[in-house]
Amino acid sequence: QSVLTQPPSVSAAPGQKVTISCSGSSSNIGNNYVSWYQQLPGTAPKLLIYDNNKRPSGIPDRFSGSKSGTSATLGITGLQTGDEADYYCGTWDSSLSAGGVFGGGTKLTVL
Amino acid sequence: EVQLVESGGGLVKPGGSLRLSCAASGFTFSSYSMNWVRQAPGKGLEWVSSISSSSSYIYYADSVKGRFTISRDNAKNSLYLQMNSLRAEDTAVYYCARGIYGDGYYFDYWGQGTLVTVSS
Questions:
Q1: Considering only Cβ atoms within 10 Å of each terminal Cβ, which end of chain B, N or C, has fewer?
Q2: How distant, in Å, are the alpha carbons of A59, B7, B74, B99 from that of B30?
Q3: Strand pairing partners for A36?
Q4: Residue of chain A with shortest Cα separation from B4
Q5: Residue A20 to residues A28, A105, A110, B87, B113: CA-CA distances in angstroms?
Q6: Is B41 in a helix, a strand, or coil?
Q7: Do B45 and A105 touch (CB under 8 A)?
Q8: What is the dihedral of CA A59, A87, A45, A55, to 10 degrees?
Q9: B2 with B65: CB under 8 angstroms?
Q10: φ/ψ (deg, to 5) at B116
């Protein structure tokens, strides 16, 4: 059971837009910044979004992030078949057992 | 170019020990915190442990506390994870990841991972 909650899967057609939600609590998302990671099949995770809504160099602006309260959202527009991957949200948890926490991951299928 | 290369994975019996290594290059290793993140077969990511740049601050997931020890050697640009009392549920690909303190804390570079299998 992951600390952060994501939908197991989402799907959309090429060219469409999709959003992936990530729900947490006041000890993690509510008081910390969120990052998002893309994991293509058989590869290591890759940073997609950091500090809620910032994109590292080289990440296209089709990818966006937002946060409100104890939830965060990843948005992907202009879907491409190459976007098919698992997406994970992550943050720091400031509870007694302080440490990194991730969502369970969302499998994106581009139909 | 930032590179993180893990090694040391393999097959180990329950109750056994293993030491993972992560060789870093392409950046000033001593200036960054480092992390271990694992992924069980077919499962999601699980953060395991973090160590600050000077080893002053160390954190562990509850699932490995008391069994795993993270360490680093800044002179050798290397990160380590000593894993003792291994259990079947520790079976996973273990990734080394660089940590960044922006407004928040995130992992900007990841290694390719090393597979640890705990089985009799």
A1: N
A2: 27, 20, 5, 12
A3: A49, A89
A4: A44
A5: 18, 10, 14, 33, 26
A6: coil
A7: yes
A8: 20
A9: no
A10: -115, 125
B91 Cβ contact partners less than 8 Å away, ≥ 6 residues apart: B40, B41, B116, B117, B118, B119
**In angstroms, how far is the first alpha carbon of chain A from the final one?**
28
Q: How far apart are CA A28 and CA B99, in angstroms?
A: 17
Q: Which of A35, A56, A102 sits opposite B104 (nearest CB)?
A: A35
pLDDT at B15: 97
Beta bridge partners of A19: A75
Nearest CA in chain B to A36: B106
pLDDT along chain A (111 residues), means of 10: 93 96 94 96 97 96 96 97 97 87 97 88
User: Could you report the per-residue pLDDT of B32-54, keeping only the tens digit for each?
Assistant: 999 999 999 999 999 999 999 99
